[in-house]
Write a structure and sequence with these properties.
This protein is of the alpha/beta class and about 280 residues long. It has 2 domains: about 1-215, P-loop containing nucleotide triphosphate hydrolases (Rossmann fold); about 215-275. The protein is built from 10 helices and 13 strands. A 6-stranded mixed β-sheet has the order 5-6-7-3-8-9, with helices on both faces. The protein has a 4-stranded antiparallel β-sheet with strand order 11-12-10-13. A 3-stranded antiparallel β-sheet has the order 2-1-4, covered by helices on one side. It is globular and about 65 Å long. The two termini are about 35 Å apart.
Length: about 280
């Protein structure tokens, strides 16, 4: 289990503020938010690449201050930064970095490279962006981690491979002991696949919890603008006015007039209408 408790981090003018959430075992957790919301900073804190200024981060009841070596074994990563050595081939990168992991299986890595149609002897720097991320994904799976930490990989995958990617992710968590934390802009995938959701906005967590609670907690009301403007503002989060129809993101506790249509939001709709929040 991954736990953030009261985590605070300041980087220049940016602040990640009072971050609290839990990621249980056996789940896919989506991490979403607009550019600059703090997603990459949060991932770097989890991986020990940054230290929090306040608060506590624990994975399986361990923290980096006293258990760095044991914690690093738990994580397999696919990050935006290119982690492999550019002059080496994917195979040679596997041999080099695999030597740092006791559980690394070279045969598994080669199997995944072949599955992903990556030329093992081609120099890493000559691969496409998508191929480089596939190499990282293959390596992450081959070190037998408990947690996969994925930063925007699917945006650079072709649609066919995205299906293979999600199949492998589902297989990874199938035993109920492994979990995946995935930061992505492709929220349609998360609507279908995610069990948990973390939504960041301007360095703060707006929602953390399971997807069922997310869908129960918020509604999108659609209808005439004057009806939306007359709603109890205590429960209204954001409104978008249209020429023929308008819509509002609201808390589900609101009393909804019969003239308005009500539906659970998708993650994309939630993010978009939340950006219409006043103040």
């Amino acid at each position: 289990m991954i736990e953030f408790t009261g985590v605070y981090k300041k980087l220049g003018k940016f602040e990640l503020k009072d971050i609290n959430f839990t990621i249980p075992e056996g789940c896919i957790c989506g991490l979403v938010g607009r550019n600059g919301a703090g997603k990459t900073t949060l991932l770097n804190l989890l991986l020990g690449l940054l230290n929090p200024d306040a608060g506590e981060i624990r994975t399986d009841d361990m923290d980096y201050a006293t258990n760095e070596k044991n914690l690093r074994k738990l994580f397999g990563c696919v990050l935006v930064d290119e982690l492999f050595m550019p002059q080496l081939s994917p195979e040679d990168n596997g041999k080099h970095f695999g030597s740092f992991y006791e559980a690394y299986e070279a045969e598994s890595y080669i199997k995944y490279l072949n599955m992903f149609r990556i030329a093992g002897r081609k120099r890493f720097k000559d691969l496409s962006k998508g191929e480089k991320l596939k190499c990282q994904f293959a390596f992450a799976l081959s070190i037998k981690p408990k947690y996969l930490i994925l930063d925007e990989p699917t945006a650079n995958f072709d649609p066919e491979f995205r299906e293979d990617f999600w199949r492998l992710v589902r297989e990874f968590i199938a035993d109920g002991r492994h979990s995946v934390l995935l930061a992505t802009h492709l929220t349609d995938d998360l609507d279908r696949m995610a069990d948990e959701l973390i939504f960041l906005d301007k360095g703060s967590t707006i929602f953390t919890g399971d997807m069922e609670s997310f869908r129960d907690h918020y509604r999108i009301l659609t209808g005439e603008a004057y009806l939306l403007k007359n709603l109890n503002k205590e429960y209204v989060i954001g409104i978008e006015e249209g020429k023929y129809s308008s819509r509002a993101l609201v808390k589900s506790k609101i009393k909804c007039p019969d003239e308005l249509k009500s539906a659970a939001p998708t993650i994309e709709e939630f993010m978009y209408l939340y950006s219409k929040k006043e103040g």
